[in-house]
TrEMBL record:
<keyword id="KW-0132">Cell division</keyword>
<keyword id="KW-0131">Cell cycle</keyword>
<comment type="similarity">
    <text>Belongs to the transpeptidase family. FtsI subfamily.</text>
</comment>
<comment type="pathway">
    <text>Cell wall biogenesis; peptidoglycan biosynthesis.</text>
</comment>
<keyword id="KW-0997">Cell inner membrane</keyword>
<keyword id="KW-0133">Cell shape</keyword>
<dbReference type="InterPro" id="IPR012338">
    <property type="entry name" value="Beta-lactam/transpept-like"/>
</dbReference>
<dbReference type="Pfam" id="PF03717">
    <property type="entry name" value="PBP_dimer"/>
</dbReference>
<feature type="domain" description="Penicillin-binding protein dimerisation">
    <location>
        <begin position="66"/>
        <end position="219"/>
    </location>
</feature>
<dbReference type="GO" id="GO:0008658">
    <property type="term" value="F:penicillin binding"/>
</dbReference>
<keyword id="KW-0961">Cell wall biogenesis/degradation</keyword>
<dbReference type="GO" id="GO:0005886">
    <property type="term" value="C:plasma membrane"/>
</dbReference>
<protein>
    <recommendedName>
        <fullName>Peptidoglycan D,D-transpeptidase FtsI</fullName>
        <ecNumber>3.4.16.4</ecNumber>
    </recommendedName>
</protein>
<dbReference type="InterPro" id="IPR036138">
    <property type="entry name" value="PBP_dimer_sf"/>
</dbReference>
<dbReference type="GO" id="GO:0071555">
    <property type="term" value="P:cell wall organization"/>
</dbReference>
<dbReference type="InterPro" id="IPR001460">
    <property type="entry name" value="PCN-bd_Tpept"/>
</dbReference>
<keyword id="KW-0808">Transferase</keyword>
Length: 582
């Protein structure tokens, strides 16, 4: 009987608790992973969703800006004084340059450096970082340079359109208009003072693109806010002719500087404001700081004898003199507190008009002492000294008009002939406009007033007193020390001034020459002041330096403004004959 061997069992004994442990561990892992995903989703969706939104928007949102040009500055007749023109700017994407082998051709970079007038190594240094995506190579180049860059065809170098400020009148209105920086922000003159008015707000179109570059959503369109146009009271014709005459005189007399201002006495509008030396705002590569100062409003000088008409005005207002009074100036000098006040010669008895015609220090001092310092200073302040003129320009000086409790007689006397106080060229023009306007003070403005708009003025002195001083000043030009200020065909009133410049410890050997005047006397329209600082040589008097400049400016200005002559008998008229008759 055969014996069948017993088969060995292949089954292993599995412990029940070990299988359950694996199951629970796997279940735990599943729950941990699921919990982590839920927690991460909750964190992203609830606690910090902005990051993913930002990343998504960065990949799909695009913005197209709507550029706006800076506002134009024009004169009272609409002639452009500052305008923005489109230009090209050269920029580079260093990453694209490195990716596309833009650095391989060294000759093109040498050509680019030459046209930019820079070193090629400096130029290459700007694009050496492959991680950068934007860098300027040259801002606001000429059309010819832009076309040359385009033809070079260097990979990764592009052109973008910007705007550049251009000043058509150049140096003629440079101090007044000012200029902008390379980004179009005003930094000098009216460009800086009215920067917010001249600067618009760019618009933009925000939209979303898909992966294929198709526009799928227009998110937002913001309209651009256009800048305003700044219309000045300046007449570009008067500005040009005044600058030409001033520049010629400053060069002829080898003076340090000069300023001239023309003011419309009826409206308070500044029609011209010029300085020499000047600068070209379109090319500031070699600009010198001293040329940038608008000296007509920043530089204050002791105004010298141009103050004597205001002393007469103060005396008339105080009632201590009458316009026909006679004052004895003998013996031509006097001592006040140990100090000497004198005239060049003993002029004896002088009428008030003759005091101004001869520019008598003795006569003006005696009027000032009669008037008293309080009334004198009050009159000076009433016509605008020691205060701003109202034009609201950056850097305007108020000058110096002291108000003290104690004044010596000598100090009062010096106030009468223009020492002991300072004023700018524009302040002096404002004071004379009060005389021309029948005693009405009106703040000055650099913006054109609308047709028919006339701000109410303040009657600061009596009309009859202002008119009396005006006619006295006419005699100063007709028969007095200001004969060089005559303008053929027109009645002109004015006063010369010559003042020594103060230095540490006293007065030096340099002079400021001035002339302040009004025209035409029959119906005053303009007040003009000319200041020449530190003329060289022996000719440093207001009557021979500033008065002739005044005459040229006023003659040209009255003709340009089409103001009819009011002194025909002063001119020789030539009538055209017929058939050759003379």
């Amino acid at each position: 009987m055969a014996v069948t061997p017993r088969k060995r069992s292949n089954k292993r004994n599995v412990q029940p608790h070990l299988g359950q442990g694996r199951f629970y561990f796997a279940l735990f892992v599943v729950f941990v992973v699921f919990g982590s995903l839920v927690a991460r989703a909750a964190y992203i969706q609830v606690i910090e969703p902005e990051q993913l939104i930002f990343e998504g928007d960065r990949r799909s949102l695009r913005v197209d800006p709507t550029e706006v040009q800076r506002g134009t500055i024009v004169d009272r007749h609409g002639r452009e004084l500052a305008v923005s023109v489109p230009v090209q700017t050269v920029w580079a994407d260093p990453k694209r340059i490195h990716e596309n082998g833009g650095l391989a051709n060294k000759e093109r970079w040498l050509a680019l450096a030459e046209v930019f007038r820079t070193d090629v190594d400096t130029l290459l240094g700007r694009v050496e970082d492959p991680n950068r995506r934007f860098v300027y190579l040259e801002r606001k180049v000429t059309p010819a340079v832009a076309e040359y860059v385009r033809q070079l065809g260097i990979p990764g170098i592009y052109l973008k359109t910007e705007s550049r400020r251009f000043y058509p009148t150049g140096e003629i209105a440079a101090h007044l208009v000012g200029f902008t920086d390379i980004d179009g922000t005003g930094i000098e003159g009216l460009e800086a003072a009215y920067n917010e008015v001249l600067t618009g707000k760019p618009g933009e179109r925000l939209y979303r693109k898909d992966a294929q570059g198709r526009v799928v959503e227009e998110v937002r369109v913001t309209a651009a806010e256009q800048p305003q146009q700044l219309t000045l009271s300046i007449d570009q014709r008067l500005q040009s002719l005044a600058y030409a005459e001033l520049k010629k005189a400053v060069r002829y007399h080898q003076a340090t500087s000069g300023s001239a201002v023309i003011v419309d006495v009826k409206t308070g509008e500044v029609l011209a404001m010029v300085n020499s030396p000047s600068f070209n705002p379109n090319n500031r590569s070699d600009l010198q700081a001293h040329r940038m100062r608008n000296r007509a409003i920043t530089d204050a000088y002791e105004p010298g004898s141009t103050m004597k008409p205001l002393v007469v005005l103060a005396g008339l207002e105080a009632g201590v003199i009458e316009k026909d009074d006679v004052i004895d100036t003998s013996p031509g000098w006097m001592r006040l507190g140990g100090r000497r006040v004198s005239d060049p010669i003993n002029r004896g008895e002088l009428t008030i008009t003759e005091i101004l015609q001869n520019s008598s220090n003795m006569g003006s001092s005696k009027i000032a002492l009669r008037t008293g310092v309080e009334q004198l200073l009050a009159t000076y302040a009433a016509v605008g000294f020691g205060n701003d003129t109202g034009i609201a320009m950056i850097g305007e000086s108020y000058g110096v008009l002291q108000h003290r409790t104690r004044w010596s007689d000598f100090e009062v006397a010096t106030l009468s002939f223009g020492y002991g106080l300072t004023a700018t060229t524009l302040q002096l023009a404002q004071a004379y406009s009060v005389v021309a306007n029948g005693g009405i003070y009106r703040p000055l403005t650099i913006q054109r007033r609308a047709e028919g708009e006339l701000l109410p003025g303040t009657q600061v002195v009596k009309r009859e007193n202002a008119e009396a001083v005006l006619h006295m000043l006419e005699q100063v030009v007709a028969d007095g020390s200001a004969r060089n200020a005559r303008v053929p065909g027109y009645r002109v009133a004015g006063k010369t001034g010559t003042a020594r410049k103060a230095v540490a410890g006293g007065y030096g050997d340099e002079y400021v020459t001035l002339f302040a005047g009004i025209a035409p006397v029959s119906d005053p329209r303009i007040a003009v002041v000319v200041t020449v600082n530190e003329p060289s040589g022996d000719d440093y008097y207001g009557s021979t330096v500033s008065a002739p400049i005044f005459a040229e400016i006023v003659g040209d200005a009255l003709r340009a403004m089409n103001i009819a002559p009011d002194h025909i008998e002063d001119t020789q008229l030539r009538v055209a004959g017929f058939g050759g008759a003379q």
